[in-house]
Amino acid sequence: MSATATLVRLAALELWTSFRLLAAVAALLASGGVALVAAELAGPPAAGGSVARAPVVAWYGIALAGGMAVVAGLIAGAVAGERHRGFAGWLVSRSAPRASLLVAWFTVGSAVVIVGGVASGAVGWLAIVSHGAALPGQAAAFAAALAGCLAAGIGGIAVALLVGVLAPPLAAGALALLLVGAWLVGTSVALPTDAYPGGAFATLAAFHLADRPVADGLRTAGIALAAAAALLVVALAAFARVDL
Amino acid sequence: MTASTPDALWASRSVRHLRPGGVVCRDVRRTVRGRRLLDGASLAVPVGGRLLLVGDPPPAASLLLRILAGLARADAGSVQLAGVDRADPGAGGWAGRIAYVGPGAVLPRWLAPREALDLAARLHGYAGDERARMVEAAVVRYGLDAGGGADRPMRRSGTAVAERTALAAALVGSPEVLLLDDPLRALDEDSRIRLLGLVPKRTTMVIASRLPASDAALATRVALLRGGRVALQAPLRALAERGLPVSMRGIEALAELVARPEAPDGRRRPARSAAP
Asked: Does A6 contact B at CB distance below 8 Å?
């Protein structure tokens, strides 16, 4: 097993034993629950099919963005805690490359976002279809928009790593929550466009109305992944210089 | 090459005559939050040497040790450990040749000692039976198996077991240089001395200590870091020869004596710079 694989396993165990993994999955699943509640509160679907900016879809997007911000806060707190406690230093002094340490946390954080996000998407889709805000045939469009949102969530993990590398544990958690929350929730209420990272949330809010929803979703996913890669490089550069 | 070759080399006359540098740092500088903690610190410890490093203020010694271990960066200066330049990008496996044990219990408390040792061995690249044998040997050698404690999470075994495990894990892979920052404080003095006495004789050891008297038995030389520079580097026996106690005050007094030796007429000579 390579050093990176060992560190990935270690990061996952750290999340599990500190109950952060449970909190992260719960936050993401709760976003699906918000869609169900919104569908319940919105009452029966409007006659004549979908309506523009259906509240169920909009609320689901906002809740998913909030859930991803919570995951980012938890990951930032975990990384900062490991650094602050001296365990990161212990690992580095035991031959673990600094970059591998951060890549391990990125891998675990991204996996949580993807697994939790897909589960949340399943619940959210059921709520949206049952409310009549979208037709069952629009599942591919929803999946593409969700993929873009997950990619933006992975970008949020990269932000969390950068904050976790630089700030003390509590401040890192709060700061990552605020930054990623402002970024993703802000984009989920913005106008639909794919020209910025996180634009997938705006695309998700109107996926049932878009002309080319799959193409839009995939394009926003690409932009978000590129942003995540750039942010990860910045976090790695910062981690290479920071005292452990 | 047999397993005994390093010991044979170590015992050879040429190595004993050459006394190559185990730890060498030159003109290390570092400012932390506007405060210059290291201002041209230079240190040289021969292979197999045991140095007690005392800092005034104590964080300066800890910082120098962390710079030596590659955990903190220096603003300027050079570091060479186990004959390899820290700045040399081609120094493959450099980290594997040194070990650092910091103060307190840094390992996650949910890990059991055996898991921590296994983790250290994995990171060093050991696999299969060799890793299992190495872990088992460390468990026995450092007394971690008492009462089934080797498989119990460290949060249930206490800080002393966590610190003992950290030391055992640091020594997995037989490092050439061991850097200890105020180590094993949760253990009583006898246990600490006994455990650190298990470190192989050819391992170069630098101990940053806030309580020099309790660590003096482990070292043969002492260095005082004052004003960011190494103000004294002398054999520990120099303290006894001058009737000084092995304490912070005694070491400072020795540094004063070295810097301003007494003239034959009993008066102090003007201060001169103390060579490291």
From this structure: yes
